[in-house]
Amino acid sequence: MEHKASVLENLADVRAMIKRHKRNDTLFAAIGLICLMLGLITLMLLFWQLIADGHPKFTLDFLTEFPSRRAARAGLLSAWVGSVLVMSVTFLTAVPVGVAAGLYLEEYAPKNWFTDLIEINVSNLAGVPSIIYGLLALGLFVYMLDFGQSILTAGLTLGLLILPIVIVSTREAIRAIPVSIREAAYGVGATKWQVVYDHVFKYSYGGILTGIIIGMARALGETAPIITIGALTFIAFLPPSPITTEPPFFNFEWLSSGFTVMPIQMFNWLSRPDHAFHVNAAATGALIIVVTLLMNGTAIWLRYKIRKNIKW
């Protein structure tokens, strides 16, 4: 009887403990949901305020006109073209190097103190403030390599900024691939490169692409490193076209051209005392947020689509 009473008492304690933990889980979930909703509501209100302030400039002329000292005539043409060109250089420099580095560190690099040191530094670089990259680029690209205050310098600077993000996201995507995929490929006689290229990279492509797009979205809105290397705050001309009508049909003079980008143009308009320029800045801010949201949404959609089509 005593043993039975002891068992019943222990069972009651376990039930009470489970009930208490469930109550704590529910409470934590409710607090987390409230915090999430507060953050989302705050962001939505700020975004709505930008749209409300900048909606008079949501016209095609705003995208096709150059900046001007008159707010009514000022446009965003040179800024968004500069952003596209800078992002192109950033993509072409950071993505191949970052993906290749992630594949090497995860699949080929020997596990020793040197690779551990590299991994620690790569992870730490992902959290370094962007202004540090601007100062590094100012000394390395502008003064030491004499690239000047150009599109090439800006693209390389932002490439360095997102390089750790691309490397880390590539490694995380590769780690998510089951070991059985590799073992099955080796079992049928595949080489190391065939396993990596035909299986590991293929199955991790969605996660890698997501990290790349998120990194590019971050680079699009960066201001501090671009200001540090000397981006122009007012520019009323476009760089030379990268494509020409004469052989070899490519022109690289645009890489050494002066430039501005959308965040810099927005900063310039905000610094003006005239309220009409603030309307232009609000429209630019809303445009940057929309593009960033579209890039992140595209990353999520592509990841879902690619993973859905993969047959494990």
UniProtKB/TrEMBL annotation:
Gene Ontology terms, MF aspect: phosphate transmembrane transporter activity
InterPro entries, per the entry: MetI-like, MetI-like_sf, Phosphate_PstA
Compartments reported by the entry: Cell inner membrane; Cell membrane
Family annotation (SUPFAM superfamilies): MetI-like (SSF161098)
Keywords, alphabetical: Cell membrane, Membrane, Transmembrane, Transmembrane helix, Transport
Source organism, top-level taxon: Bacteria
Assigned GO CC terms: plasma membrane
ABC transmembrane type-1 domain residues: 80-299
GO biological process: phosphate ion transmembrane transport
NCBIfam families tied to this protein: 3a0107s02c
Statement: the UniProt record of this protein carries the keyword ATP-binding: no
Gene3D superfamilies, per the entry: MetI-like (1.10.3720.10)
UniProt protein name: Phosphate transport system permease protein PstA
PANTHER family: PHOSPHATE TRANSPORT SYSTEM PERMEASE PROTEIN PSTA, PHOSPHATE TRANSPORT SYSTEM PERMEASE PROTEIN PSTA-RELATED
Bilayer-spanning residue ranges: 27-51, 71-104, 125-145, 151-168, 223-240, 282-302
